[in-house]
Amino acid sequence: MASGSVAVSEETAKRSGTSDLVPVQEATPEGELPFVELPPPSEGQMLPDGIQPEDLPDLLPEPDPDAEGLAGDFGSTNDVAADPAAAAPSAQDIDQLFAELAAPEGDAWIRAQSDIQRIWSRSGSAAMDLLYKRGEEALDAGDLAASIGHLTALTDHAPDFASGWYLRAVAYYLDGEFGPAVADLGMTLQLEPRHFIALTQLGGMLEETGDDKRALDAYRASLKINPHQQEAVDAVTRLEQKAAGTDA
Fold first, then answer.
1. Which of 4, 53, 73, 85 has the most beta carbons within 10 angstroms of its beta carbon?
2. How far is CA 107 from the centre of its chain?
3. How far apart are the first and last CA of the chain?
4. Quick one: residue 50, left, alpha or beta (phi over 0 = left, psi -120 to 50 = alpha)?
5. Rounded CA gap, 142 and 185, in Å?
6. Residue 224: CA atoms inside 13 Å, Cβ hemisphere, count?
7. Cα separation, 38 vs 220, whole angstroms
């Protein structure tokens, strides 16, 4: 896996469809990130308590490019361990990292991506980090029920930690539970509107259900934040060619 890659772990990345992030030279067009509506789950798919199918389109508000976001994203167990005593970076520092990440050229984005990953991986609690680690290890071992159990405990006790919601979304998706997966992606993006990996994951799920238009919106929104995701770049090309009738 590339040194600048952001992923839960190599095994989880393979099974969730997350690929290495590599430099590309072309970013998406300027403009506001698009509002991404969510489809209702198919018949027989259960949603978390209190969430109805008609509520799903409201789970993902239009990302605010000025939003600071909260701690989140999927820190691998191989990442630098969270240090609850470490000083939280300022909003200005985080904005600078995202500015470097969005630059289509140069290699400063690699360090910026790594720093963003490190920031997002800190829950601020050793106990919550342990729950996260157990959830990820169970996911890597293919024990989806145990992973969902650990991550549900994490989201119950640390509802502002976007990392827990995202990783549980991956677990639900791999377990074939589409409704809960999109609901958790919605929570991830509410907590961290610039969570480009969640947007790419959402794009993949929408594309899988045949909703190419909204999938393309999600991929483009993700690439506006981080244009160095080859998986999303390839997906945009694929869907644009399909829409034009020129797909291979």
1. 73
2. 22
3. 28
4. left
5. 20
6. 18
7. 16
